[in-house]
Amino acid sequence: MTELFKALKIEKNEEHQEINLVEISEDDLMEGNVVVDVTHSTLNYKDGLAMTGSSPIVRNFPMIPGIDFSGVVRSSEDLEFSKGDRVVLNGYGLSESHYGGYSERARVNSKHLLKLPENISNHQAMQIGTAGYTAMLCVLGLEDFGITPKSGEILVTGASGGVGSVAISILSGLGFSVIASTGRLSESDYLKSLGADTVIDRNELSEPSRPLGKERWSGAVDSVGSQTLSNVIAQTKYGGAVSACGLAQGMDLPSTVLPFILRGVSLIGIDSVMAPMSKRERAWDRLSKDLDMEKLAQMVVETDLDKVQDFAQPILDGKVRGRVVVNIS
Question: Which fold is adopted by the domain 130-269?
Answer without folding.
Answer: Rossmann fold (3.40.50)
